[in-house]
Amino acid sequence: MPAVSKGDGMRGLAVFISDIRNCKSKEAEIKRINKELANIRSKFKGDKALDGYSKKKYVCKLLFIFLLGHDIDFGHMEAVNLLSSNKYTEKQIGYLFISVLVNSNSELIRLINNAIKNDLSSRNPTFMCLALHCIANVGSREMAEAFAGEIPRILVAGDTMDSVKQSAALCLLRLYKTSPDLVLMGEWTSRVVHLLNDQHMGVVTAAISLITCLSQKNPDEFKTCVSLAVSRLSRIVSSASTDLQDYTYYFVPAPWLSCKLLRLLQCYPPPEDGAVKGRLVECLETILNKAQEPPKSKKVQHSNAKNAILFEAISLIIHYDSEPNLLVRACNQLGQFLQHRETNLRYLALESMCTLASSEFSHEAVKTHIETVINALKTERDVSVRQRAADLLYAMCDRSNAKQIVAEMLSYLETADYSIREEMVLKVAILAEKYAVDYSWYVDTILNLIRIAGDYVSEEVWYRVIQIVINRDDVQGYAAKTVFEALQAPACHENMVKVGGYILGEFGNLIAGDPRSSPLVQFNLLHSKFHLCSVPTRALLLSAYIKFINLFPETKSTIQEVLRSDSQIRNSDVELQQRAVEYLKLSSIASTDVLATVLEEMPPFPERESSILAKLKKKKGPGAVSVNELEEGKREGGELNGGGERGGDSSAIASTPSPSADLLGLRAGPPVTAAAPSAGSLLVDVFSEAGRSGALRFVCKNNGVLFENQLLQIGIKSEYRQNLGRMYLFYGNKTSVQFVTFTTTVTCPGELQSHILHIHTWNSLEPLIEGGAQVQQVINIECLTDFSDAPLLNIKFRYGGALQNLTLKLPVTINKFFQPTEMASHDFFQRWKQLSLPQQEAQKIFKANHAMDTEVLKAKLLGLGMALLENVDPNPENFVCAGVIQTKAQQVGSLLRLEPNAQAQMYRLTVRSSKDTVSKRLCELLAEQF
Amino acid sequence: MIGGLFIYNHKGEVLISRVYRDDIGRNAVDAFRVNVIHARQQVRSPVTNIARTSFFHVKRSNIWLAAVTKQNVNAAMVFEFLYKMCDVMTAYFGKISEENIKNNFVLIYELLDEILDFGYPQNSETGALKTFITQQGIKGQPQTKEEQSQITSQVTGQIGWRREGIKYRRNELFLDVLESVNLLMSPQGQVLSAHVSGRVVMKSYLSGMPECKFGMNDKIVIDKQGKGGTTDEPGKSGKQSIAIDDCTFHQCVRLSKFDSERSISFIPPDGEYELMRYRTTKDIILPFRVIPLVREVGRTKLEVKVVIKSNFKPSLLAQKIEVRIPTPLNTSGVQVICMKGKAKYKASENAIVWKIKRMAGMKESQISAEIELLPTNDKKKWARPPISMNFEVPFAPSGLKVRYLKVFESKLNYSDHDVIKWVRYIGRSGIYETRC
Name one GO cellular component term (chain B) (predicted). Predict the structure, then answer.
């Protein structure tokens, strides 16, 4: 509402409002409003033209009624009429009504736009401001369309008043935010940037918001603003506080402008120009210096303004991350704030320090504050500050202080707030693993963690400790001992029981020598916890028991007794019952050899990203600062954490048909074990050769996995006879969501299509593949004549709405149509000599890619399809093969000789065939295989 | 059972708060205020559940009465009690208003103590209550022991609603048949729904313990008599009897007798009380017929003509007739012409209100109005709410007739003939609407 001056006060409005306020009930209010609305309607309808004053009054009343929550469906026209008034107050009310009530699709929008246009082109600054405010308040796309061209002109025009420029800059900013595509700066760019040099501080402040927003989108165009901003900043920073007059706020010169300038500079890398950079560094130093000076005022506004600039400057320093001197100074400054009375300051200091800790220059400086931070963690009253302190501790942790920090965090955990406990637990677990110097410390820490905050220890944490214990031989005995001791506590957490059950089941034998932890003692200890545990833990314990039977045959009868009891073998839980029944049978039927094989020690886990880290990342979201850095640390730590790279062969406990994933600890989705329907050994093979292109892998074999990603797995099985081949493709949906519009097409690029290879797709596929399902496709192939390219398989489907498109080479190579030919040494050399034309021979000398194992080589050559001829070559190290390629047009006889050189790890491969293209192609194919 | 009872003014301030059970905390008072009285959207359901607590409320002008409970109570019982509570308060201090409640809060607490015990409703008969809860405070001389024991025996005895030893010089009896007739009619004059809800209210000033018998033209009774004795012509009785859909009685009526013989016999309370309530839906006499005529002339004008016809004996006079013609929300001016009565456009209610003081039967009257409209951006069409009517007629629109009311008092020496009886019929409009 406008300030009601005496001459212009709208008494009617005041009376109406006080009437409404005095209404006793809602009904009375509605009655009063109805009456007023009828009155206004009759006034607007009346034949007598209303004067501006009453129009304004009634529009005001309508506005008030609207703001009370009633619908207004008339009066828009009168409001638009007010826009063309010459009186400020009338115009103002008109604009107010329009920006509150007119929606964009109104018919009146043209009239309104016209009125705004008139005001924008008028010479009266207040009218221009009103129009600009209205545009900004509505801020719709239509407004942007109509005025986006006009406003930049007003903004940069030389004769525009300062206040109008301010409004124009902010209005443009608003329009840019709603519809960036309509606001084209182009030609105005440089002149807008030069607004930074404007005399009027208000204009600069408004313009800088606009420039910051624009330069975030297209930094290159606004690059010039950096030097201007720096010079502006230095002028402000170095000015005496009296220079800026109106813009000095509690002795701080232009704090808002300084903050905005610093923020703008954060959009750009450090300036390259040495002079500019020097000036900027000088500014930053001055700001840091000023922070040291005693405050000029005791008022809180003074320190707030000063600190705002300081924090903005520090984040700029951190952003540049190139001035060690400044970084250290910033760190020291923040260190002072760590003990400040003001909670907000402590919070901000801790937050900034978190980012500082990630910089190599200031990491050490941050570390000096470790005591203060730990103290903050312990004594701080505000939970959000404690949270920041924990974050900072995590960020500043490295090998030198890991033990101290982990110990502090652990001790804090006992009293920590419930809201941050889980995160703290993850952090402790990660730090312990990452900076573990010896693994006994790691195991101690994690077990401590489980003891202190068992409820907050997520699955990933204890999976991880088991993975590490299994992968590290040296720590197994210690782990078993510690776990055994931990389990002796009268009340221990279920997670502890899980870890205990697993580790004792695997490595209980390592401590069985000690009479205090004899097998029976171990078993009784575990079993004493059994009844207090949930079903998954009990299932795990049952698996541990059967492992005990294998480890310690003397416990067999006791354990069988337990398994046989009604509470196990007739347990209402299917999983438990099944385990009990199967383990009982297994233990009573199988011989010790079989038991030992089935219940073999778990193989080491494949090394991969720690699942804890993944969990923390998920928890923190993309905002986390230090996760990337941590990941690097993880990679360094990799060699420490070691672990052999063996395929996750899951057959060790395969006797349990139920998904015993908890035992395997592989729930985090390892890349290896997504078992294909084909044999497991094949899978391992595939992954050992994963680096090579899909089709080449199949030169020497006919079956395997052609392709696999998170969604889809394509298996292949093929058979060839003479010049004909049949290929079975298996498409497996690995997700739980169905694939829609699944189509595959096989194309033969170029000349392949016309006469060289004839491909015929058999049964066409259903367009739907259900989640987890597999479909089969058969392709018939006929070789017309020899070829070198491979046909392409194109797969298209929709997964969750997104179109997936894949193109793969089908592994059809010329050698598939080999017919092996057996011949004696004499025949071989005769034919060899016959094919003596230079173009008939292809030879290649290459380095061995794989170990030179005779058996493997033989297998590969057999897989090639030729006959491997024994006792032909005088040198037994060499291999010779013979075969005929069957095509429809002709038969191409081929001979092959492979001479391995074990010392040099080299091969010489010679292929002779009756057709030069065939020899060349064969040579190329085979050179990749050995 | 009822856990507590609160009375609020229109602002939601608590005037009376009485908690009967521990499961109702102090916050229940606020919960109702926040969720019902101050709700953003008007709460239309009389039962509201907030945090497993049920609030049953009735509103009397600006006053909210809310019964609160955490248990699964009989909602009808709670509302019956709340209405009874309103009746009791009205009987004690007149209209239920904020001021009256504030002035009588001691009395109200006293009443609440008496009529609800641990949340169970007790005797809420005004007559009985008035014997021991008095507004005059302590009388000059305290009640004698006899009087006290008399009250006790009455309240705990078989006939709790009447004390013994009442004596009147003139034995008088007033009987009012009050009916409200509800109607919804289509513009073409087709009845879409109609029913009458009626009450028989009595005021009795009789000595001793009289036994009364009330008879009316109930179809079942008349038909039975028609079969038994052939005194009445069958055609005549069929015309004059009415079919009652359902009825409820005052506690003094002997229900067993009603069930077996369908006769209404009772020992009446002293003073005023409601003997019965009933509802009929068949053969209703509609006292007025409304014939609307609405014509839209362009976008900015509306012509309305409404004719009302009275449909009863010319000798009878209807009173307080009021016709309410809704106007569109964008009305900017109204001109009304009417032959009879006064008509006025009431902007605050968005309606033209036409009032006629008196109107005889079989007459006709009309009003015509021109409504000017303001063009709006709103494309919504006017919903045309129905035209409603209020009136009062001196007969029962259901056709109910009192056939007899006999009084027997064996102990005292006055007979049925000595009692002076007054019978009055009043028919009022309930929701009496005609679509236009």
Answer: plasma membrane
* Residue range A578-591, pLDDT digits in tens: 888 888 888 888 78
Between residues B148 and A755, which one has the greater pLDDT? B148
User: For chains A and B, what is the number of CB pairs under 8 angstroms?
Assistant: 48
pLDDT in tens, B81-95: 999 999 999 988 889
Low-confidence ranges of chain A (pLDDT < 50): 1-6, 621-693
Residue A68 touches partner B, C-beta closer than 8 Å: no
Structure confidence at residue B391 (pLDDT): 95
CB contact under 8 A, A24 and B62: yes
**Predicted confidence (pLDDT) at residue B224 exceeds the cutoff of 70:** yes
| Extended strands (E) in A423-492 | none
Task: Read off the tokens for B219.
Answer: 């179809």
Tokens at A471, concatenated: 């992968």
Work out the average pLDDT over B26-34.
89
Of B62, B330, B348, the CB nearest to A41: B330
Q: State the angle between helix axes of A324-337 and A274-292 in degrees (0 to 180), rounded to the nearest 10.
A: 20
What is the Cα–Cα distance from A230 to B365, expressed in whole angstroms? 88
User: Does residue B228 or residue A540 have the better pLDDT?
Assistant: A540
Give kind and range of the element (H or E) at residue A761.
strand A757-761
Q: Phi, psi (5° rounding) for residue A608?
A: -160, 180
pLDDT for residue B275: 93
Could you tell me if B328 and B382 are in contact, meaning their C-beta atoms sit under 8 angstroms apart?
Answer: yes
- Per-residue pLDDT tens digits for B265-292: 999 988 888 999 999 998 899 999 999 9
> B182 CB near a chain A CB, below 8 Å?
no
Q: What is the spatial order of strands in the sheet that B271-280 belongs to?
A: B246-249, B271-280, B191-205, B172-185, B420-434, B387-393, B317-326, B351-360, B342-346
Distance between CA A155 and CA A190 in Å, rounded? 12
How far is residue A69's CA from residue A83's CA, in Å, rounded to a whole number?
Answer: 24
- Any chain B CB within 8 A of the CB of A37? yes
Predicted ipTM of the assembly: 0.73
- Of A103-117, B97-111, B364-378, where does mean pLDDT reach its minimum? A103-117
Residue A901 neighbours by CB under 8 Å, 6+ apart: A907, A908
Residue A79 identity (one-letter amino acid): A
Three-state DSSP state, A17: helix
Range name among A45-54, B111-120, B168-177, B426-435 with the lowest pLDDT average: A45-54
Whether B346 has a binding-site annotation, put simply, is: yes
Write out chain B in H/E/C secondary structure. CCCEEEEECCCCCEEEEEECCCCCCCHHHHHHHHHHHCCCCCCCCCEEEECCEEEEEEEECCEEEEEEECCCCCHHHHHHHHHHHHHHHHHHHCCCCHHHHHHCHHHHHHHHHHHEECCEECCCCHHHHHHHCCCCCCCCCCCCHHHHHHHHHHHHCCCCCCCCCCCCCCCEEEEEEEEEEEEEECCCCCEEEEEEEEEEEEEEECCCCCEEEEEECEHHHHHHHHHHCCCCCHHHHHHHCECCCEEEECCCECHHHHHHHCCEEECCCCEEEEEEEEEECCCCCCCEEEEEEEEEECCCEEEEEEEEEECCCCCCEEEEEEEEEECCCCEEEEEEEECCCEEEEEHHHCEEEEEEEEEECCCEEEEEEEEEECCCCCCCCCCCCCEEEEEEECCCCCCCCEEEEEEECCCCCCCHHHCEEEEEEEEEEEEEEECC
Q: Which has more confidence, B109 or B160?
A: B109
Q: What does the pLDDT read at residue B176?
A: 95
Q: What is the pLDDT of residue B424?
A: 94
CB contact under 8 A, B332 and A76: no
CB contact under 8 A, A74 and B349: no
B405: burial class by Cβ within 10 Å (0-12, 13-18, 19+)? buried
